[in-house]
Design goal:
alpha+beta; single chain; about 20% strand; about 110 residues; 3 helices; globular
Length: about 110
Amino acid sequence: KLQMPDARLDPKSRRRLARGTIGIDARIDLHGLTAARARARLTGFLTAAAQARNKWVLVITGKGRAGDGVLRREVPLWFGQPPLDRLVIAYEPAAAAHGGGGALYVRLRAA
């Protein structure tokens, strides 16, 4: 059985992403989409990113009204479910420069 992705990146990688010394290989902006459309788009994006050997991607969920948006809440849950559980190693809210709580750094496993 595959493990649930770790919600935490290693601190060194997190710092380097925030500073920009690790490049983000790809990014997707889901905010404004319905949950169903966002999930389909995210699945396609992460599958393609893993196949392209991307290690680090940025997933922009938006914050939603009053900071409790559906995508902000749902996307981390999707990472633990098939097929994304095979692709995502770890994730964590992005630094303010990359969208803060409305975005996630995601570490991918090579497909």
